[in-house]
Amino acid sequence: MRHYYLEKTSMGKFIESLKEGYRVVAPIKKENQFVFAKVESAGEVELEYLPTVLPPKKYLFPQKEKLGTFDMGDTKLTDTSVEVEPMIIFAAHTCDIEGLECLDVVFNSDPADPYYKARKKSLLIIGFECMVPCDEYATCRTMDTHNPKAGYDVMITDVGSKYVLHVNSKEGKDLLEGNSALLDAGNGEAKTLLAKTREEKLKRFDNKLKPEFSRLARLFGDSYTSPVWDEVGEKCLSCGNCTAVCPTCYCLDMYDKVKLDTTGGERKRVWDSCQLEEFASVAGGENFREERSSRQRHRYYRKFDYSVKKYHKFFCTGCGRCSRTCMAGISLIETVNSLDEENENV
Ligand code: SF4
Ligand code: SF4
Questions:
Q1: Is residue 288 part of a domain?
Q2: pLDDT value for 345
Q3: Whose CA is closest to atom 8 on ligand 2?
Q4: Taking Cα atoms as reference points, which of 144, 132, 142, 194 lies closest to residue 168?
Q5: Could you tell me which residues come within 8 angstroms of residue 282 by beta carbon, excluding any fewer than 6 positions away?
Q6: Do 44 and 182 fall within a single domain?
Q7: Quick check: is 27 in a domain?
């Protein structure tokens, strides 16, 4: 696919051009954090940013949404259409793009979730490649999400004096065609520049997780009864923050909001969390994961074991949000490294 050059001084013009015909959302500074929000003017967009509070999954799988309406006695929902508008997620990190790839496997494969599918269809993703690891919580190098691989329409890479834009889909090609902020880069020189930039970049990305990518699945296969889960469970406050901010967590609850006259109502879905005490409670009072240790283990196994068995993918992108947000100081790096140390000693 095609490559373009973009002069650094033309970035603002480029962003403004995207707003013609699209709702552009991008990382924007809010107090001392970053959030994905609608871009009103190009100057608001932060290209060098720590992972946003919530990942861009909120645009495809909103925190709360109406699924449809019903009248009492109906066997099907009506009014199930999803309002969508053409949207661009701009300057997404490669780890967050991998997060959307994980959600795609869950919501956009057979049978697809119609709400997710409709939003994804009208979405373009423009990535912005990180040149340094975000902070001490990021494990993108071990999770192999530090470089762009798939799931984007256009990727922007800072090669020093300018940006290289790699077009990765027909939609991306159509979007950039004829854009006056861009210069055609051909393929050869741009590819060489990208390869050189990534070779240099790799020296700055360290492996904070001790087990290598290829060993992670086996490590979790051997760690189900580890005492590490009790240690983590002792600290956990069961607040659910770690799952809310995770780009690959997708647990949800559904409920009906019935009208006061009980003639009908609305069906809604809302994000849920496996870390909340009542999450695994069932009728009759049984709770399958009553202990915090078992809920924490479940969270980790959903990232490093169950997803590998079901979808052949790790569902941890290494973004570091869970550790960054945890009020109890539970660190994914420390947990995985403790499992590794314990495993070495067996
Ligand atoms: S954010 Fe921390 S304290 Fe809250 S549920 Fe997750 S691990 Fe537990
Ligand atoms: S488990 Fe933590 S580091 Fe991994 S994707 Fe989720 S929030 Fe990011």
A1: yes
A2: 63
A3: 319
A4: 194
A5: 288
A6: yes
A7: yes
